[in-house]
Specification:
Distance between the termini: 60 Å
Low-confidence stretches: none
Number of helices: 6
Strand content: under 5%
Oligomer: single chain
Number of strands: 0
Helix content: over 70%
Order of helices and strands: HHHHHH
């Protein structure tokens, strides 16, 4: 009989140990990946929540100032970019890596933040809408 041979028993035990080890490793890796996916899914919800708070404000200068701070914080966390980069520098980086929508957003933010002109409600709505789309695209 095949099973009564000691070498066959040892071979079957070794294969069983290998299979159990592979299954355990796959299950452990799967759990870690699932936890990471859940974390990533909810990681940026804080930005959406803060953006909703900003939408309730009335003063366009304050809104722009808060969106500016929120945007820089988001770019730092999401792309590991330093807060001291200008929007034009950010736009260049985004365009180099094929993120045209991020680059366009940065160009518009640069115009709003550094132009010195009065910010109207139309600009605020546009920048909020664009930032929301960027958050949703991630």
């Amino acid at each position: 009989m095949i099973i009564s041979d000691p070498l066959n028993i040892i071979a079957i035990l070794i294969v069983a140990i290998i299979v159990i080890t592979v299954i355990y490793t796959l299950l452990k890796t799967n759990r870690k990946l699932r936890e990471k996916m859940i974390y990533e899914k909810y990681r940026f919800l804080i930005y959406k929540k803060k953006l909703e708070e900003i939408k309730g404000l009335k003063d366009n200068k304050i809104i722009l100032k808060r969106i500016n701070k929120l945007t820089k914080s988001f770019f730092k966390e999401r792309f590991n970019y330093k807060n001291n980069l200008t929007y034009l520098e950010l736009a260049e980086r985004f365009k180099k890596v094929g993120k045209k929508d991020y680059g366009d957003y940065c160009n518009f933010m640069s115009h709003l933040v550094y132009s010195g002109r009065n910010i109207d409600t139309k600009d605020i709505k546009k920048i909020i809408g664009t930032f929301e789309r960027l958050l949703d695209s991630d």
